[in-house]
Amino acid sequence: MPVGVSTEPIVLLPTAADRPANATHPTVRGARGQTVPVGTFPPGLSDSLAHGLEQLADEIIAAIAAEVPAYARPLEGSFGQGVRRGVEEALARFLALVDAGPQAAGDLAASRDVYVRLGRGEVRAGRSLDNLLSAYRVGARISWRRMGEAARRAGLDAAGLVSLAEMMFAYIDGISAASADGYALAQFEVASERERLWDRLGELLLSGADPATIEHAASTGAIRLPERMAAVLIPDGPGDHLSARLSTGCPRASHGSDFWLFVGEADDPSRRLWLAERLAGTGAVVGPCVAWQQITTSVERAGFARAALVAGRLPAATGPDPLITDDHLTELLLARDPRLLDDLAQRRIAPLAGLPERTRARLAETLLYWLTLHGQRQLVAERLHIHPQTVRYRVGQLRELFGDTLDDPDARFELELVLRATTCRGPRPTAHPPAAQAPTAHVSVTQQPAAQQPTSQRDPAG
Questions:
Q1: Which stretch of DSSP H or E encloses residue 259?
Q2: Is the pTM for the entire model greater than 0.70?
Q3: β-strands 285-291, 258-264: how paired?
Q4: Staple partner for 426: which of 243, 395, 422, 449, CB 3.0–4.6 Å?
């Protein structure tokens, strides 16, 4: 905004060319008749400028309210007092600089804290720094218009007016810089406080603190927790490469070498896809999405799933992508009691125990698909990418090994449970051919089934 100037006629003072050659020190006669050296301030100039200071403050405040929308509100209460105090303080400190003279350095050290606090206050009020800087410019324009007039009447020559203007511009630059520093510092502090609050909320959620305690902590930072959240376990911490991909705007906590995130609305398809993309390759485990008051359920399941995966009790969940626990509920249920599962396995798949490992793996996989697909030989062959005759041959072997057990509904159910929990396989068998399956937002990368191996490694038809 351009700096305003007096609208009254300006009287041109004598220049160096107009002065007599024998003049050693040019002078000008002031309003009170005193002789003032050119380029200096006449004695008592600050007193002259201070005349009508209260009216000048009122004029500045009115102009700020009219020209800066953020301050266009009734100047009442603490807000109005703060604006008036800021204007009066700025005028008083500028006059102190004038009193020191144009040759004095414009030192803001004594008053810098005032303007730093003003900048910090804008952050607390939720306003942009531009508003405060605009108010400074408005104040400078009105102040120069009135003080320039008063200085001229007090006998200030042209060089002195230039010095006075330079002092005012430097003063505005200085207080603007101080306020900008205060604004940036407050922004950093607010961001740091919010990050610490996310850490605190994460610790409370991870420890299973009382919901009222968690709500109170969130309210101190005006944070509203999402209604539903999922606990995400990242083994060995997120690392620098992952931190850049993860949003920091959510509760998080460290526990030993593990890092936990609490992500809102994680059961939303787009949110789930977002998580899968950013957690790929980290070995992360995503618990179920539950009401945040029940987040310990998600924490416990994610922790259990990680332990089961490390122990090798989730063969279908291997791979670099994050483990989404909702995709492996059956496996997690069976992994809950390893000894019980071992007993059931010894009871139901004992006929396979004496076979060579390669043969045992092929027959176990064939039996799982045969049970899941209700004995439909063609579908089993398509899933395993083998000839239907190979399926017939393997099923014949299985009937020789298991006998009438394969016709017992209870035994078939138990066999399928055991095989689902112990057979390392690719995509879970379903009762529909692959073409009928709808695409999913997230696909786990798991070990390919034997059917995907080179032709030389497939079972011969027979």
A1: strand 258-264
A2: no
A3: unpaired
A4: 449
